[in-house]
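One-letter codes give the sequence; the fold follows as tokens. Both lines appear below.
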Amino acid sequence: MACSSESSGKLSSDVSTSAMMAPSPATVDQTMTPVLFEIFGEMWNVQARLGQGVSASVYGVSSGRSSTAAVKEFQADAQGGDYGYHKERSVLEDIQGHKNIVTLYGVFTNHSAVGVATRCLLLELLDVNVSDLLVRASNQGHSMWMIQHCARDVLEALAFLHREGYVHADLKPRNVLWSAEDECFKLIDFGLSYKEGHQDVKYVQTDGYRAPEAELQNSLAQAGLEVDSGCTAAIDLWSLGIILLELYSGIKLKETVRSQEWKENNAAIVDHIFTRNSMACPAIPVYHLRDLIKSMLRVDPKLRSTADAALISPFFSIPFAPHIEDLVLLPTPVLRLLNVIDDSHLYNEDEYEDIVEDMKEECQKYGSVVSLLIPKENPGKGQVFVEYANAGDSKEAQRLLTGRTFDGKFVVATFYPLSAYKRGYLYQTVQ
């Protein structure tokens, strides 16, 4: 497929390998007809369809240099125009540069074999989304480390977005994704976003994450009544409050927030959820998280917490260690191998050097190894830390090494935060 390229002012044609959601080998649709996008003079292969909406499809793509990205391809709207494309492009170009917002690499027009032209965004390819994390929570809820990490990252993005005058207007678990390369959560999908006070979309937010004032506005618009464009940045905080409550409880709350009991006194329901789950977590952080969520779920938007105010909550002053499950779910460029080395191997220098070389040789089969560390003392004693050149190699190694045997023992492979590894901080994870 040929295409003409346009500069967004923020693109290098040399797109680095980056991690919308990276397909794993298990998720690639093998029945999908192979598709090529020609982007800036280079052919990119479609690896998987990552999402399908009314107005756009999202694909994971890779180039011959093993670079990866996401392509969001827009269909023409009912009037034959490109409003959705121009809307999201303009918002993204205006807010680029924040670490917790998806990166726009560039834009191009794709011409299909039948002569149909479609507008496309070339975006950073991200990993697992919060919706998938909720599915994997199995009604147990996630760790305080995970919740704090997600809350801080999304609040940082919202604080920036709101300072720029924008309302996201569709914050939900599927629009918060993990970046393996940057080790943080990022916001995507700005198709409903607007400048505060200049709302140009009638229906905002997704059912289950919709603030009361947006619910009222949507109902009036559906009835054909004139509505006041009064949905402020506060609607984003409401959505985040629901997301954090779901992460803590491990339960999707769509039916709960539709109930009359919720509308009459959501604070009581929040208290009940925290009372039910509080045995699993230390009391003080739990109370801080509960109060933070309640501040986001005030019915009156004028009383609702702002993103900046939420970021100074006492909840963020408490350090947490990740659970081992967290490091399985959230990819990074560093792999940690457990159940591999016996203590006896650590104190014989010749044996130790042989093991280091053997492990490096094995790990290099899956990608480019930057460094490898086997600590001789705690913390981290006997664990193998392998830093790969990128998260793609690390994910492939994790997939292939998990369950392998080494010296008669089954290997357990998790990821490990690159930032902590670089600082030499090898914490003991919570089981």
